[in-house]
Design goal:
CATH superfamily of the largest domain: P-loop containing nucleotide triphosphate hydrolases
Number of domains: 2
Radius of gyration: 23 Å
Order of helices and strands: HHHEEHEHEHEHEHEHHEEEHEHHHHHH
Oligomer: single chain
CATH class of the largest domain: Alpha Beta
Strand order of the largest sheet: 4-7-10-3-11
Number of strands: 11
Number of helices: 17
Distance between the termini: 59 Å
Strand content: 5-15%
Largest sheet: 5 strands, parallel
CATH architecture of the largest domain: 3-Layer(aba) Sandwich
Length: 376
């Protein structure tokens, strides 16, 4: 039986393998916070959990501990949704995080698994080509041909490993998985058992096992979930950030983290430029200016918070390597146009109209108007 992987602090020496990784797992990057929470967590823990529901919520939303240790927020939004998600995972029902693209579904899923199990790597990535073996088990065909069906020839899936070790399994983009493969989950979620008929055996889930799935409602490759499968999930809809300030805070924090991870030789992104990017995204997404006075056309794309973060990160790279290290409108507009103009005809008209009717009329946005015109 597999053992739980504890959340251990990453090494800090210059030659540490973790230091060269482009992106660390949540339990590695935030190991110090998880350890601090575990040290002060005297509340009741569900069976198999590393932290109590109180500590998991604190890890997600951030806060100051009794000894003054500061836990950074991983999710900026409605705390009640986090409570519902954590409480669901403490029951026998699985959790489905649902919403438009870019609302931090995968981010929340990873951090929930890291806080609860200390391991966020038991992941199945849903695609149109995902087969039953990805959710159940596969075979080492060389051993299978040589020895026949045996436990040594069996290759466990992340789902099977999570069941054996009592950890959280994650499924990304559940609605992209073909419907007949989705239904493989019904027995796992309802009976907490994975039959292995070739060996006349079964794997029974250990306490602590559960499943977090994510899905979005804008994907053209959607395979609707059956009612039987939906009943096994508690669905939590993650909305876009409510306010401009919330979204600016998210984009600012994540872009700073990306800049540090990529070691970009540039200054911290200016808050005012981040605010302008987020304002443009929100106004085009909502079809209305932030002051509520002017309606605007919306493009075909989603213009999510995640895309805003990518625009800022791309601008930081341009500024660092081809500019003076200070983020300016000219560094951001090309990425902005790429995010907005998905349909080269319809979306280009939307962007040009927005430039002329909104951006041009704002006195302190003249640099954005000039950059936008030159990039079009």
């Amino acid at each position: 039986m597999a053992k739980k992987t504890p959340a251990t602090a990453p090494a800090t020496s210059a030659d540490s393998p973790l230091q060269s990784k482009l992106r660390q797992h949540a339990e590695q990057e935030f190991a110090a916070e998880l350890e601090a929470l575990a040290a002060q967590d005297d509340r009741q823990k569900p069976p198999g959990w590393n932290l109590s529901p109180w500590a998991v919520k604190t890890y997600l939303l951030g806060g100051r501990l009794a000894d003054g240790f500061e836990v950074s927020p991983k999710y900026v939004g409605n705390g009640k949704l986090v409570e519902i998600a954590v409480a669901t995972l403490a029951t026998d029902r699985a959790l489905l995080l649902y919403g438009v693209p870019g609302t931090a579904k995968s981010w929340v899923s990873e951090h929930l698994a890291a806080a609860i199990s200390g391991n966020s790597t038991l992941l199945v990535q849903g695609t149109a080509g995902t087969d039953e073996a990805s959710l159940r088990y596969g075979w080492n065909y060389a051993r299978l041909l040589a020895e026949g069906p045996s436990t040594k020839a069996l290759v466990p899936s992340p789902m099977m490993l999570a069941m054996e070790s009592g950890q959280i399994a994650r499924i990304e983009e559940l609605t992209r998985i073909p419907s007949d493969v989705q239904d493989t989950l019904i027995t796992i979620l309802s009976e907490k058992t994975l039959p292995i008929p070739e060996l006349n055996q079964e794997t029974q889930a250990t306490r602590g096992f559960n499943v977090i799935a994510t899905a979005n409602n804008r994907d053209k490759g959607i395979n609707e979930l059956s009612s039987a499968l939906l009943r096994r999930f508690n669905t939590v809809v993650l909305p876009p950030p409510d306010t401009l300030e919330d979204e600016v805070a998210i984009v600012s924090r994540r872009s700073e983290q990306m800049g540090r991870a990529l070691e970009l030789p540039c200054e911290k992104p200016a808050l005012e430029e981040i605010r302008r990017v987020v304002t443009i995204f929100r106004e085009l997404r909502n079809g209305l200016t932030e002051d509520g006075k002017t309606k605007v056309k919306s493009p075909s794309g989603t213009l999510s918070t995640a895309e805003a973060i990518s625009v800022i990160a791309g601008g930081m790279a341009l500024s660092a390597y081809y500019g003076d290290g200070q983020l300016k409108a000219g560094d951001l507009v090309s990425g902005m146009v790429g995010a907005i103009v998905k349909d080269p005809v319809q979306d280009q008209v939307v962007w040009q109209e927005y430039l002329q009717t909104i951006v041009k009329e704002r006195d302190d946005w003249k640099d954005w108007y000039r950059a936008g015109r030159s990039a079009s």
